[in-house]
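Case 669 in the screening queue. Each case pairs one protein sequence with one candidate compound; here the compound is calcium ion. For every case the pipeline is the same: read the inputs, emit a complex structure as tokens, and attach any notable structural observations.

Predict complex for case 669.
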Amino acid sequence: MSPRRLYFLILLIALLLISVMSFLFHQGEQLLLKRTSLIQATEEIQLNATAAHLWFEEIMSGDTSESIDEVWRYIDLADWYAKAMLEGASNSEGNFYPLQNVELRSEIIAVRQALKSFKSIAQQRYINLAESIPGSSLDSQLDTVFHDFIQQAERVQIQVQHQIDRELRQYRYISIALIFISAIMSILLSNFLYNREKHRAKLLESLTQASSSIEQKNKELHQLAHYDSLTGLPNRILFQDRLEHAIVHATRTDSNIALLFIDLDNFKYVNDQYGHQVGDELLKLVSHRITDCVRIDDTVVRISGDEFVVILPEIEGLNSAITVANKVAETIVDVMQQPFYLAGPTVYISSSIGVALYPEDSGDGEELIKLADSAMYHAKETGKNNFQFYSDELNRQSLLRLETERDLRAAIEQDQFTIYFHPQWSLDSNQINGLEVLVRWQHPIRGLVSSDQFIGIAESCGLIDKIDFLIMTKALKQHKLWQQAGLDFGVMAINVSSISFTREDFFNNVSHIIKQCELDAKTIELEITESILIENDKYCQQLLASLKSLGVRVAIDDFGTGYSSMAYLKNFEVDTLKIDQSFIADFDKNSTSEIILKNMISLGIDLGLTVVAEGIETPQQQHHLRELGCHSAQGFLLTKPKPAAEIEQFILAHQSNNVISAKTFEPNQ
Ligand code: C2E
Ligand code: CA
Ligand code: CA
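Case 669 output:
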């Protein structure tokens, strides 16, 4: 109980006791006063009457010095006291309260009557002095009346005494009862107040507990609503709030904001390969690494699966904004490349980042996010593991993407696609030994659109498998026609996107078309990228085995761009390695590229595969690759890709020479 409440309780009980005590004191005093005055009155009645009697007898005995008036005065005084007992009165000795008791009152009335009789007989005697000598009948009558009066007065005195005793007893009982009741009430009151206090204290405690648990719940709800449960970073909702806040501040202070949109490269691979638990662990570490790259005032947000956003607010001047964003993005790209030592495996990933600046690129938050996102997309397209700033050019590209996506649907329905062929030749015999099929889009407005302008878009909007199937059908039909015409060009290589390749009906579709066209499967090669093999390990092993049993050849396209580890190759039944053109373009300038190229070629040879170098543009490159033991080449050195009719003429022209002109292909000649 609080001291204030205790004090209040004591005060209450004290007040109760004081009021009981003062009531008892008052009652006691009243009783005493009554008692004193009543006893006094009864005594005074007797005393005055006796004095009157004595005086009267003196006068009657002949004492003339005494005055008869004195006798009457005594009698009147006795009667005054008797009257005072009936009606109440006051004199110098105090107050006289009227008696309530009916019996006593009638006794007093009788006393007064007796006094009256005494006075009247005394008066008779005084007037008839001669007949009232002592011993006369009047004298004895007076004595009798006086005697009766005295007896009555004594009786009154005794009764008054009794009544007062009774009242005193009553008073005592009432006092005891009152003290007892007030003691009980004090106990009950203190008990009640104590319990009430206890209850209040409990209530207060449970209220405090409830309010703290509500506070806790609110905190948790706030945490859930605004923070990502896996990484503990702010989520999209809080991000929008922070961005709006940053924009308001930047507008007021005329400062800049840099927005970094980060997407992890190959995260899906980690998730599929090692499971979601490892994926989650990786995301946590990624969030720590990103957070470590920024200042305490910057905001790092996880906005979805493997996408993060960083807000770098309050940067003075556009140039500083570019510098800061550059530095942070560069650091993030760098730290993401470092190995992640997880509980189980050690994982290697990278990141692609898009940067947009406020207010340079846009004054609107939503717009800014979109711009950073499209810049990130651009970073993906330029080989991942890098960052790109948003620019108008990028914006134009993203609009084009949207249009392309819309137009592609019509293109499939109306079959606006055509195929070009790009020859491969043997570096041993210089003879054409293959044709790669490359799709072209005959766009009604844009004209002929090359594949790199729409294949990526078709992949991201889920249209690629339809296109691949269309092209494969077209290509194999052409293959059949050339076969029937006796045109010998070796294998026909068809590009297959990873999305098409991993579709359940892929094998059935391929075998169906081959059968329909009645072609020898050995003259068909499917080009797939190495990422498909890594990401779909078991499934691919089976599919490749089935394709092998059908007789279809499989080439790994753009080899060297995907994964640094090449050991996986031995697990898959593939026939050809097509070394990516970036290694060819680079190797005479970059000694590292040359070493890698050498190793890739010898690895292919060791595994018994046909090695094809892509993007041969110069006789020097061709010469060099031949020296390194590469089997075949493909590139603009021989020709650019051509439509069916032109490539047919091209092949025929070269077949008539039977060999590819040494003059064209050897360096310094
Ligand atoms: P890719 O499979 O690597 O095809 C080779 C690309 O390199 C072709 O570009 C070709 O024109 C180009 N190229 C060949 N030799 C040289 C050279 O010496 N120098 C230079 N600078 N380029 C050379 P294209 O036709 O634009 O195709 C781009 C990519 O589009 C292809 O790369 C392939 O991945 C994809 N693609 C093409 N057709 C199809 C298709 O029917 N289906 C699928 N899924 N993808 C296709
Ligand atoms: Ca290819
Ligand atoms: Ca290629």
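Case 669 observations:
- Residues 137-226 form the longest helix (90 residues).
- The first strand starts at residue 89 and ends at 91.
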